[in-house]
Write a structure and sequence with these properties.
Helix 2 runs parallel beside helix 3. The mean pLDDT is 92. The longest helix has 13 residues. The two termini are 41 Å apart. The relative contact order is 0.18. By secondary structure, this protein is of the alpha/beta class. The chain has a 4-stranded mixed sheet. Strands 2-3-4 form a 3-stranded parallel sheet, sandwiched between helices. The chain is built from 5 helices and 7 strands.
Amino acid sequence: MDSENAIVNRVEASGLITLDLETFYHPGDRVLFDIKNYLYKELMLKEKDFRAFIAENNWAEFRGKNIAFCCSTDAIVPTWAYMLLGIAVEPYANRYVFGDINLLNQTLFYDALQQINAAEFEGKRVIVKGCSNVNIPVQAYLEITHKLLPYAKSIMYGEACSNVPLFKKK
């Protein structure tokens, strides 16, 4: 095929950089750990009993997992109880938070996106990919926007063939 009839990948030639947030997804299991089951009548924490639970539980079962600690009842739970849980899972868990699975996902993405050197996008045209095989929290899109704004020449959302322009440096 001569150069006049060669197939040209115009997307590749355009200098667009596609940023796929799915690549920042932590594959570890997400676990919702409801503390209510370890409270007296699911309403209040008895320190002695709770400390015994912490000491006797096999925390190794959380190896590599991501944990969201919560209490689904209107119980009296002191803050230090969650701190004890964190200390117990620290040697095993990948990440833990107080909240729900959605907050856990937001935190995991936030942690991963902090590893990006946004200066590498200086003067670049960036498309933040919109479709994904995993649940990407809206907060992750806001965080990447926050990181890219000082550097990127332009930011778009979607795919190269059909994108939504969001920002263009003047």
